[in-house]
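Put briefly, the fold is written as integer tokens. One such record reads:
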Amino acid sequence: MHPVVATSKKNANVAMVFSLLHKLVQVFMEYFRELEEESIRDNFVIIYELLDELVDFGYPQTTDGKILQEYITQEGQKLEVAPKPPPAITNAVSWRSEGVKYRKNEVFLDVIESVNLLVNTNGNVLRSEIVGAIKMRVFLSGMPELRLGLNDKILFENTGRGKSKSVELEDVKFHQCVRLSRFENDRTISFIPPDGEFELMSYRLNTHVKPLIWIESVIEKHSHSRVEYMIKAKSQFKRRSTANNVEIIISVPSDVDSPKFKTTVGYAKYMPQENHVIWTIKSFPGGKEYLMRAHFNLPSVEAEEQEGKPPIAVKFEIPYFTTSGIQVRYLKIIEKSGYQALPWVRYITQNGDYQIRVL
């Protein structure tokens, strides 16, 4: 994707300009899938149309892609009567159109946490944090109001439940649909949701995280002719949980050849174009320990070690599990017609920037 820039005739709020540029990119990608030079050239007419609605006299206006798609279509070259802008644009609830109807009313809520971790060669955790997001897919009729209850530490303390298991959320950011005044007053997350898929909120916890998957490595070079790797992987979460699609990525010198692997579980593959080995474990239950051995030939004359030793990276996904302990206590759905709706909640923990340095 190419960089996007904005020009200003006078001093502007830089944070607002960056926020607008991110929103422009998001809307363009909703229309064109890819924001590349070719897609901009092919769609310059509709880009002019979108910019006319997104920005008015230099001020951001309607920036919701779903609402824009209701009246700015990519069949603009046809000689048809232009559709009228939906009333939602001038409504207080500009992110949701009226008259939405579903035969089956459902809400899907995903709590997704990414673990960022950096471990040094001595096994000490240098950096650890949890970056979380609550994503929703809403298929509800009418104009419903939703109220979400979390085990928020401040809320629990305010309501006399300080000893209950709670989570202290930091850097909380909400979708524009959330009533911020209510959250500031009594920590209630109340909102009229957009239709379809959106991110309700994000948060961060700058807390010490016990490495979920621990890696130990021994690298031995023999007389400049071969190199051997022994990688031990241990899952340090409860036995009732299982990590799926685990990938352990080990960097190797660029001039190795003739790879040979032995694994107690899963399989290892040499990726010469990336200069690394990927050890893949489809299912990694908690409290387990697995081993992988790799053997490579090296040229007889070894060049000076200028490449350094990149850290081992780990990718994983653990369903039905959160590192922070955040819980959805309730999701109330209130709509004037009084229909019953089914809320579905799912928890997922995955890797973020998860790296373990090697000797």
